Amino acid sequence: MTKLTLSFIVLAALVAAQAPPPKPAFPGQTGAQAPTRPSPALNVQTIATGLSGAWAIAFLPDGNLLVTQNSGAMRIVSPTGKVSEPLEGVPPVKSVAAQGMHDVLLDPNFERNHILYFTYFAPPRGQGSSSWPIEHFYEEVWTKPLAERRTMDLGYERIARARLSWDNKRLEDVEPLMDGAERRIVLAPDGTLFVTGADRFRFYDSELQGRENREFDTESPDIRRNFTGRVIRINRDGTIPRGNPWLSRATVLPETFAHGLKDPEGAAINPLTGELWAIDHGPQGGDEINIIRAGKDYGWPEVTYGTQYDARQADGRKSVKVGKGITARPGVEQPVYYWFPSIAPSGMMFYSGDLFPEWKNNLFVGGMVGQYLARLIVNGERIVSEEKLLTNLQVRIREVRQAPDGSVYVVAGNSILRLTPKR
C-alpha cells in the first residue's frame, strides 16, 4: 500500500470524527432532502477498466474517448473498451499529491482543427516526467519558512494547447498558454476559457490549511488574489481578455477572474444563466458549490465551513479551526451549497440532454470519499434536492460528463462507466 493510498484511507476514516456541523447562512444551504421523484432505474455499462488515476474524459467526433490519467498519460478508449498505449508527444508531467495530468477540453472547431486544451503540473526546468511521494509536496514544503519555499523549484501549474494527430496517436504543436492554474477547463459562452486552479500555498505565508486563530494578510489582499485557489480567464490563444476584473490593478495577475478557493476540482456553465458554477474541494468538511463571478472573493483561507485535516495534526488534536473558524464575512461570497461531512467532490456537469428528461438542467457532482454521484436539483441559485446515485458501487467518483447522445459517463475508481435509463 502506498503512502498516498494510506493517507486517503486515513482521511476517509476520520470523516465521522469531524466537529459538529456548522450553522448554514440560509435555509437549504446544506443537507438538501432527496427529491420527491427519484431518478429512473439505470443501466450501468462498464466501458473500460484498468485506467489507474483516470481524471477527465473528452468525446471525440469519431466516437472514441480521450482520457487523461493523473500520472501524465493520455489514452484513446474505443467504444468497445479498447485502451490505447499512451499518446506520444505529451509534455513531461510531475505527479505528486493532488498534482499531475488533469483536464482536457476540445476546441469548438475541433473537427476542423483538432486543437485541444489540457491542464497539468509541469516538472522543474530540464526534468522529465516523474512521480513523487506525497510528503515531497506537503511535509517537505509547507513546513518550511516562506523565504525557503520561494527558492524551491517544484514545478508549475499549467494550461497548454496542442493538436491531436489525425490518427489519434500523438500530440503535436504543444504550446503552453498560461502558468498558475491546472484543474478544470470550461469554455465560456463568449469563447474564452475559464481555468480553475488550487491554492498555491507554497507562494505565500500560510499553512496548508490556513493559519489557526490568525487573520490573513489583510494589509496585502493582492497576495490572496494571486495565490489562493483561483479561476483564471484567458483567450484560447493564451492572451488576456479585455474584460478581466483586475486589469487596472498592477499588483494582481491579469488573468485572475475570481479568487479565495481551495481546490476547485469541478466546474461547468449553467445552461440557464450562462454563468460559471464550480465546486471547491474543502479541507475536512466545507466542500462547496459556488457561482463564480468576476472579481469576487470566495474566502479561503479565512472563511470556510471546514476544519483542518485531523490527519495532519502532529499533536493529535481534532477539528482544528481554519484561521479564526469563521463561515461568513462581509465581502466574501457564500456558497450556494456545502457538504458536511466531506464528500471530496470532483467533476461537475449540468445535464442538457434528452435521454434523461427527468434530469434536464440538473447539476451532477462526483463524490470520492462520499462514493456516490450527486444529482442536485437547482431552482435559480439554490439547491432544493440532492439524490445519491451509484452508492451500490462503493467506489470513488472522480469525473462526470455528458456524451453527445445524452448518456452520462463517469470515472468510477479505475473504470469508465456509461449510464443510460433502464426503460
What's the layout of helices and strands?
Blueprint: H1 3-13, E1 42-48, E2 54-59, E3 65-69, E4 74-77, E5 94-96, E6 101-106, H2 110-113, E7 115-122, E8 130-132, H3 134-137, H4 146-149, E9 156-164, E10 171-179, E11 185-187, E12 193-197, H5 221-227, E13 229-234, E14 256-261, E15 266-269, E16 276-280, E17 287-292, E18 337-339, E19 345-350, E20 363-367, E21 372-379, E22 382-389, E23 397-402, E24 408-412, E25 415-421
Parallel strand pairs: 5-8
Antiparallel strand pairs: 1-25, 2-3, 3-4, 6-7, 7-9, 9-10, 11-12, 12-13, 13-14, 15-16, 16-17, 17-18, 19-20, 20-21, 21-22, 23-24, 24-25
What assembly state would you assign to the polypeptide chains in this entry?
Answer: single chain
Give the C-alpha Rg. 20 Å
CATH architecture: 6 Propeller
- Helix vs. strand class: mainly beta
CATH class: Mainly Beta
What's the number of domains?
Answer: 1
Largest sheet: 4 strands, antiparallel
Order of helices and strands: HEEEEEEHEEHHEEEEHEEEEEEEEEEEEE
Instruction: Tell me the fraction of residues in β-strands, as a range.
Output: 25-35%
What's the tally of helices?
5
**End-to-end C-alpha gap:** 42 Å
Q: Choose one word for the global shape.
A: globular
Helical content class: under 10%
Task: Tell me the total number of β-strands.
Answer: 25
CATH superfamily: TolB, C-terminal domain
Low-pLDDT sequence parts? 1-17
Enumerate the strands of the largest sheet in spatial order, edge to edge or round the barrel.
1-25-24-23
Mean pLDDT score: 91
Instruction: Fill in the CATH topology.
Output: Neuraminidase
